[in-house]
Amino acid sequence: MPHQCVRCNAIYDDGAKEILKGCSCGAKLFFYIKKEKLAEAKKIIENPQLTEDDRKQMEEDVFELVGHEPDSDSPVILDIEAIRVLKPGKYELDLVHLFKGDPLVFKLEEGKYMIDVVQSFKRLAK
Amino acid sequence: MFNAIRQFINKFFRNIFSKKKNIALGLYGPPNGGKTTLANKVCMDWLGEEMGTVSNIAHETREIQIKEEISLEKNGKVIKFNLVDTPGIATRIDYEDFLKAGLNEKEAKQRAKEATKGVIESIKWLDDVDAVVVVLDSTKDPYSQVNITIIGNLAARDIPVLIVANKIDLKKSSVKKIQAAFPQYEVIGISAKDGDNMDKFYEGLFEVFK
Fold first, then answer.
1. Segment B188-197, tens digit of pLDDT
2. Whole-model pTM above 0.90?
3. Residue A88, SS3?
4. What is the set of domains in chain B, with CATH numbers?
């Protein structure tokens, strides 16, 4: 499955070292995209109206949304089928996907594990 | 080591004999349906204090609010529950809508982000509620993706549901339209703002908790 860097649009396949350590451009947020949704994702990320600041803001917003420390070294991968950030302040949510309780975000830590952040949230809330 | 075992045993027995947890009643629905207005009305009626702030701008409630131990009495019967007021569920959250409502750009973007987080929280909380009141605006078309998805999911999870058609004080209100959209559920028309038909609503709650 491809992963696309939110800041520089680079696409990486599963297991690429950039996904584990962060993109070569320095960004640490990737959209997780199924192959059939790639065209849609490209439309969002390659939107020429998105400035560099917008992209950084989107990264910060998603980090806050999922409770991820921005200074942390581990990248975050957002499932764009569940939540789309079109630009800062514009969100589209797929309720069917969210209600199903699928992982919203895949967070890679130490380059090895995928953690369901929604589940971690739940544990924190209790 | 012995201390640790003793603490474990104490904790184990304390948990077994501690009183059963209160049932949780969740208020769910799209933004601006009147969930918090209803929560405030219920809290005023039974606790004498309000729960949260209400506003004409959508997504005023962006975090889960809980009022514990509400005791509802009717004809000698009592039900005790924790009331869980949830952020409105939406499929699209756009800061430009908040700009139109008079917020500045920074505030609007912050509100959009918090509202998005609120939707995720609301859905996550479904695992922890025992019954749900779906609060719908009776002046609006009930056949929306949000309404159908919420009610469909509650049915799939076997969570008891009461549907409230709120805002019957407004001219455009139609309780019948909501009844027609969700015929398998009891629909009670109320005005949470004016307190109209709240008796019927409380009766409905007793039915849901049966």
1. 999 999 999 9
2. no
3. coil
4. 23-208 (3.40.50.300)
